[in-house]
Amino acid sequence: MEEHTDRLPREFFRKDCLTLSKELLGQLIVRFLGTNRHFVERLIIIDDGTTLVGRIVEVEAYLGGEDKAAHSYQNRVTEKNRSMFLDAGYSYVYKSFRGHANCFNITSDELVASASSVIESLTCVKGGDTSGGLGAGS
Fold it and tell me: Is there a contact between 64 and 70 (Cβ–Cβ < 8 Å)?
């Protein structure tokens, strides 16, 4: 299996949210697990040096302050959503409104504060046998 070590440059994310969402399709998200033991909610996760890789297969665009479905609607900055107002390429991670899954947004568009792309779905490329507790529910 090939190693996945190249990061997308910050410039990749500096575009309008709709374009970014389309260009994120097919990109890889990589998580390197260390050698530490830590708690996630009530689960104990032992990081064993595994690399998890998922290919982005579904993305949703949120257009920022004007988008009533966005957490940044009306450009309201809170402790929870403040990363949505940072430079393009930052992540905003939160529990879904029902608490069943973590949601992962990527900020975009340096001209429209708080626009972001929500990663809706990944397919496993590597590490699927170890990622059960590390995906949507953790």
Answer: yes
What pLDDT does 72 receive? Answer: 78
40-44, 57-61, 93-97, 107-111: the lowest-pLDDT one? 40-44
10-26+56-126 CATH: 3.10.300.10
The pLDDT, as a whole number, for residue 46 is: 53
Q: Give the residue extent of every domain in the chain.
A: 10-26+56-126
- Residue 36: what pLDDT? 59
SS3 82: helix
Cα–Cα distance, 114 to 73 (Å, whole number) = 8
Three-state helix/strand/coil letters over 17-72: HHHHHHHHCCCEEEEECCCCEEEECCEEEECCCCEEEEEEEEEEEECCCCCCCCCC
